[in-house]
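Hey, I'm writing a tutorial for new members on how sequence and structure tokens pair up, and I'd like a real worked example in the thread rather than a made-up one. If someone can provide the structure for the chain below, I'll link this post from the tutorial.
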Amino acid sequence: MIKRIFPGMETYQYYPFFYKHKWLLPVCWLYRLLRVVFQRERRERILREADAVRKVKV
């Protein structure tokens, strides 16, 4: 779960501004979190993924 919240540096190549300015990574984490909170499609996808992980663990 931690890797999903704070992904590795290879993920940030899709965010060129944050990749160039690594000191702003906490802003990127907040941006990613807010996108999940405010975009229904992303929120539903995350919930489906969490449900799938929960089923595999059992």
